[in-house]
Amino acid sequence: MKNAQQGLSLIELMIAMLISSFLILGATQVYIDNQRSYQFQQSQSSNQGQGRVIQMLLEHQLARTGYRATPLLTTSLASAFPALASSNGCPAFSAGQTLLLSTDNTGVCYRYQGSADGADVDCLGNKISKGQDVLSRIDFVSSTSAGAGSLTCSVGGVSTTLADGLADFMFFALPDSSASAQGVRYAALLSSSASLRDGVATSVLDQWKSVSGKTRNSDQYLYQISQGSVALRNLMP
Predict the structure, then answer these.
(1) Which residue has the higher pLDDT, 216 or 152?
(2) pTM, 2 dp
(3) What tens digit of pLDDT does each residue of 112-142 get?
């Protein structure tokens, strides 16, 4: 007598399908977790890189403050930089003044002269003649979208973006002209462009409030604070 062929019963088939479903769900979850971890690390790296870019750009621009092309002829800041009426979102400058907060207090206005070799360019990329007086303004332009704020630089009413990806930004109080240490301090709140924290608590926004005095509503974006300063060597006594 021949043995009857054995096959999978319905129950065995359902169990096999259930196990397969769990395996697929597990593999999918691992993939999703890896993607989130990768995006988190990429956003952190991007924020750190953006902080370095902001420092470099501000250093390049603000370090020019008070530069005189011919210091042997213009022996004082007052002789090199005469009084200047308010313009380009900047308040009026007294003779010798080269650094002030912008009219709306969101940025800084700074004055300098074109380099002695005539090879200098302003923040717009325009060539500056030797000894030409330049008034520039760096501002923070806020946005209602996360991480969409930007730092802009303007000359003569024309502006360009220096850096973006900012949630907030501030310049600290500027030093008095008679202070022995001359520099510009700033703080930037950098943000990811996507929601990445998945409910994980963070103290960064509380730290930002302590630094800036500004309160931001908590959300799921990844934040990082970058602080720095730019020495104004041309203004050192």
Answers:
(1) 152
(2) 0.78
(3) 999 989 899 999 999 999 999 999 999 999 9
Other residues' Cβ atoms within 10 Å of the Cβ of residue 54: 21
Tokens of 14: 């359902």
Q: How far apart are CA 146 and CA 216, in angstroms?
A: 11
What are 49-96's pLDDT values in tens digits?
888 999 999 999 999 999 999 988 888 999 999 999 999 899 999 999
What does the H/E/C string look like for 156-222? CCEEEEEEEEEEEEEECCCCCCCCCCCEEEEEEEEEEEEECCCCCCCCHHHHHHHHHCCCCCCCCEE
Q: Which helix (H) or strand (E) holds 101?
A: strand 99-101
Record the tokens describing residue 192, joined without a space.
């990811």
The Cα–Cα gap between 83 and 70 comes to 19
Rama region for 89: left / alpha / beta (φ>0; ψ in -120 to 50; rest): left
Nearest partner of 50 among 203, 193, 196, judged by Cα: 193
- Name the residue with tokens 């730019």: 230
| Domain definitions of the chain by residue range | 11-235
Closest by CA to 178, choosing from 86, 89, 96, is: 96
